Amino acid sequence: MKEESFVSADDIRSAFSAAMSAMYRKEVPAYGTLLELVADINKATLDAAPQLRERLEQTDSLDRISEERHGAIRLGTAEELSLMRRVFAVMGMFPVGYYDLSSAGVPVHSTAFRPVGDAALKRNPFRVFTSLLRLDLIADESLREEALRTLAARRIFTSGAIALVEKAEAEGGLGTQDATQFVAEVLETFRWHDHANVNAELYHRLHDAHRLIADVVSFKGPHINHLTPRTLDIDAVQRQMPERGIAPKAVVEGPPTRECPILLRQTSFKALEEQVSFIDVDGTWKPGSHTARFGEIEQRGIALTPKGRALYDSLLDETRKAVRPAADGSNASRYEKALQDVFRAFPDDWADIRAQGLGYFAYSVDAKAKSVPETDDLETLIAAGAIRFDPITYEDFLPVSAAGIFQSNLGDDQAQGFVESPNQKRFESDLGASVLDEFAHYARIERESAEAALRAVKASEP
Ligand code: OOG
Ligand code: NI
Fold first, then answer.
1. Which residue, 10, 76, 227, 354, could crosslink 151 as a Cys pair with Cβ 3.0–4.6 Å?
2. CATH number of the CATH domain containing 424
3. How many CA atoms lie within 13 Å of 411's alpha carbon, on the beta-carbon side?
């Protein structure tokens, strides 16, 4: 096999995310409006901060700044999940992390398919938050069986997509023509279908059990339910959404605005009510509506160590005990204030965050260093200015934030309670693989950067 004739997985992923973006903009015009707003605000932010522009020019490709960083889908069965894993693998996307959303009233558990390793992430960080419906959490047995029957009858991938996955697995990659065809075939899986798989009566029963069940079971495939570009100023986008005629969710999820951004901040516009048709028993189509698709934005900060994450979780918990954000936004400013106040306990200085072991950093030789002490002690070299440290970006998701995004887009009527029941083993057995541990992944990037920086310092010694 001539390896060099294969298109790289990174290139296939880039082509796929661009194709998804074009499709979704056409399907959901409000999303196009959000993209314009994000691009305008990113430009204004960069114009006002030449230093930020310079840093991004060096580390990121500036022209890709407003492009999508993630999307999300919801699947119905173990077979769909394991096949999805094989499809994403062709694009260099692997399952990282396990998210249990049952405790937050959403009957799914999830992972993120994403590129792994520094080089692939830099090339194109696109990921897909992928949830699997948990019918085991649904009490009504006959409804559960009907849902399973409906799901078992659908095929979410084209036969062409499956054939190309098998070919890529057998041969180790795809050539140019196959890769182009692969992207086109796989795109079909994520397309919106306005003709439901079920009749109106079943749709409403599913909907009454949980809106999410209706969304997963009633349609031919797992339509992409949102895409998410990156913004340099999430607060500005949140503020300006109404001026462009789009309704933001009540509050920004995640940590507050800070000097040193941590983890992930997200907000979205509320899902739109869309026209669909249900198949009737007599074979005719009956008009109805469904609400599922929205647009989101994200702003990422440093990846936290388990210690940093524990601090984040406890501060968020403390905030939400003091003020629980209401879905209608009525206490949004009180919540924001509480969040700011409580998070003062989290150091807001890179050196402090590093010294206290709260975040992961990448080490590199400082090109501006004048003299380099003869030592291989990292701390001494940092103190002497020979080695610098930069925050490693968080590439994953946050369960409390994800639950907030789900809730706001499932309609903000009373959230339903489920018994908290994480089941990572079951998820991994359905997936057909284990999920990567996010902390181990960041720790490795950090360790490898430190080793490389020390080697480079040594090599430069006379
Ligand atoms: C996924 C919601 C979670 C995020 O960014 O946290 C999510 C969904 O609604 O299917 O996308
Ligand atoms: Ni999202």
1. 76
2. 3.10.180.80
3. 14
Whether the complex's predicted ipTM surpasses the cut of 0.95 = yes
Q: How far is CA 266 from the centre of its chain?
A: 10
Residues with CB under 6 A from ligand 1: 72, 74, 129, 131, 225, 266, 296, 397, 401-402, 405-406, 409
- Asked whether residue 325 is domain-assigned, the answer is no
Indicate the number of domains in the chain: 1
pTM over 0.80: yes
Q: Which of 129, 224, 272, 398 to mutate to test the pocket of ligand 1 (most atoms within 8 A of CB)?
A: 129
Name which residue sits closest to atom 4 of ligand 1, judged by CA: 402
The pocket of ion ligand 2, defined by CB under 5 A, consists of: 72, 296
Q: Residues 354, 439: contact at Cβ < 8 Å?
A: no
DSSP 228: E
Q: Residue 245: inside a domain, yes or no?
A: yes
What atom in ligand 1 is closest to the CA of residue 294?
Answer: 9
In a domain, 182, yes or no: yes
Give dist(CA 114, CA 395) in Å, integer. 8
- Domain carrying residue 186: 3-302+393-431
Kindly give the distance from the C-alpha atom of residue 11 to the centroid of ligand 1, in angstroms, as a whole number. Answer: 25
Residue 237: C-alpha distances to residues 19, 146, 248, 276, 298 (Å): 24, 42, 9, 30, 10
Q: What is the pLDDT along the chain (462 residues), one digit of tens a residue?
A: 554 589 999 999 999 999 999 999 999 999 999 999 999 999 999 999 998 888 888 776 777 788 889 999 999 999 999 999 999 999 999 999 999 998 888 899 999 999 998 889 888 999 999 999 999 888 899 999 999 999 999 999 999 999 999 999 999 999 999 999 999 999 999 999 999 999 999 999 999 999 999 999 999 999 999 999 999 999 999 999 999 999 999 999 999 999 999 999 999 998 999 999 998 888 899 999 999 899 999 999 999 999 999 999 999 999 999 999 998 889 999 999 999 999 999 999 999 999 999 999 999 998 887 778 889 899 999 999 999 999 999 999 999 999 999 888 887 555 567 777 889 999 999 999 999 999 999 999 999 999 999 999 888 776
> 71 C-alpha to center of ligand 2: Å?
6
Please say whether the beta carbons of 80 and 222 come within 8 A. yes
Nearest CA to ligand 1 atom 3: 402
- Asked whether residue 355 is assigned to any structural domain, the reply reads no
Q: Is 214 helix (H, G, I), strand (E, B) or coil?
A: helix
